[in-house]
Amino acid sequence: MFLLKYSNHFKKDLKLYKYNRAVLIELEKVLDILVKGNKLPPKNINHRLAGEFKDCFECHLKPDILLIYKIEKSVITILLLRIGSHSELF
Fold this sequence. Notes:
Active site: 86 (proton donor)
CATH class: Alpha Beta
Number of helices: 3
InterPro entries: RelE/ParE_toxin, RelE/ParE_toxin_dom_sf, Toxin_YafQ-like
Pfam family, one: YafQ_toxin
CATH architecture: 2-Layer Sandwich
Keywords: Toxin-antitoxin system
CATH superfamily: RelE-like
Shape: globular
CATH topology: YaeB-like fold
GO molecular function: RNA endonuclease activity
């Protein structure tokens, strides 16, 4: 079982979605799966990133709402880096 850590960017991004119930519900589902160490379903389009976010993963919460995170296996932690649309994040 993994622990969750939140970057300052993630906390700031999340405030933009505090009234978007659909995104928050999907985020909760995805985090529950990740914390247990399970694979996300294909609908979340989970994949590894390159460039600035090398060693990180991206999954879709909604068609244009993404979650960027990093798995730190050595400390059994998932670091949540960003949440937002493609245009906001890239």
